[in-house]
Amino acid sequence: MKESKYLDYLGIDNKNVFRNKIKEFLNNKSLDFFPMCIIKKMLIFLLYLPKKLLDNHRKNVFIKFYRKHSPEVKKLLDILGDETSKETIISQINYFSTFDGVSEIDFLHKHNLYEKHLKLLDNNEYFPEGIIHLSENEVLVDCGGFTGDTIESFVHKTNNKFSHIFSFEIDKINFEKLIQTTKKLGISSDKISCYLKGVYSRDKKLTVDFKGIGSSLSTDSNGNDVDVVSLDSFMSEDVKNKITYIKMDIEGTELEGLKGAQEIIKKYKPKLAICIYHRPSDFWEIPFYIRSLRPDYKLYIRQHSISRTGTICYAI
């Protein structure tokens, strides 16, 4: 669920537009006869009221959504592999449903949730201990390579002993940084393949709104056309049976990416690490879909950020 949806609800396109409106307000010569204290109060009101309306609307949307889908949440809890996974899901749903728009750390302290969230926090993103075990024959498919942060962690975790890395990244700026990261790590060119492409359910062109960390699909004509591929069609047959680990952090299209890798998953059962925080329904839709492909997967949920992001489903 995108922030812009709620900003549009208030008639505010983004933060910069709102700041510009405030500047226009302050530069209005007709305000010169007002005492500065009154202007400050008016400014505070203009800043506070839209934000309060935005936060309340967001909170109500999430509360109604999760109440409506409580059967799915209950079903999800029944198939998770340990208590930490169950506590993590409940904790994050509560977080989404009650977040009041203040700083996330302040919010957790305000509701006496900080210590609880801290206990659930796992600092080994994509490689949690006791869940992900790596060998010297790992073939990692890194979907959403970003600037190479996962690759860097993977190389360190394996002590640079692995078979191959395939990395997919759609943002040209991020892709260039990713290439620089692989060079800095000294990865041999025959052990890594990087593609300026996205991962999806089928091969096609999509429009993407590039926002650095948070690139997303867009219907805006000002977006950028990018190539996306399905892993099933893109990977050669002699590579598919060697893939041991698929990671996906692809800004809300993880379910589509999994659909494009269903042949690999069904036939070879690689380890999976799939982000499930981009869309509210991902909490259950992604685990359910993984189980539909291979009922013998064990599913775990881990939280890797103190914020509302960083929730990952692991399938082993």
Description:
This protein has helices spanning 3-9, 15-26, 36-68, 70-79, 83-98, 104-110, 114-120, 149-157, 172-184, 231-234, 237-240, 254-259, 262-268, 282-293, and strands at residues 139-143, 164-168, 192-195, 198-199, 204-209, 216-217, 224-229, 245-248, 271-275, 299-303, 311-315. The chain has a seven-stranded mixed sheet with strand order 3-2-1-8-9-11-10, sandwiched between helices. α9 (172-184) links the parallel β2 (164-168) and β3 (192-195). The protein contains 14 helices and eleven strands. The protein has 316 residues and is an alpha/beta fold. Mean pLDDT is 83; it is low at 1-18. α3 packs across α5 (83-98) and α4 crosses α14 (282-293). 47% of the residues lie in helices and 16% in strands. It folds into two domains: 3-9 and 37-120, no CATH class; 139-275, Rossmann fold (3-Layer(aba) Sandwich), CATH 3.40.50.150.
SSE topology sketch:
Elements: H1 3-9, H2 15-26, H3 36-68, H4 70-79, H5 83-98, H6 104-110, H7 114-120, E1 139-143, H8 149-157, E2 164-168, H9 172-184, E3 192-195, E4 198-199, E5 204-209, E6 216-217, E7 224-229, H10 231-234, H11 237-240, E8 245-248, H12 254-259, H13 262-268, E9 271-275, H14 282-293, E10 299-303, E11 311-315
Parallel strand pairs: 1-2, 1-8, 2-3, 4-7, 8-9
Antiparallel strand pairs: 5-6, 5-7, 9-11, 10-11
Helix pairs in contact: 3-5, 4-14
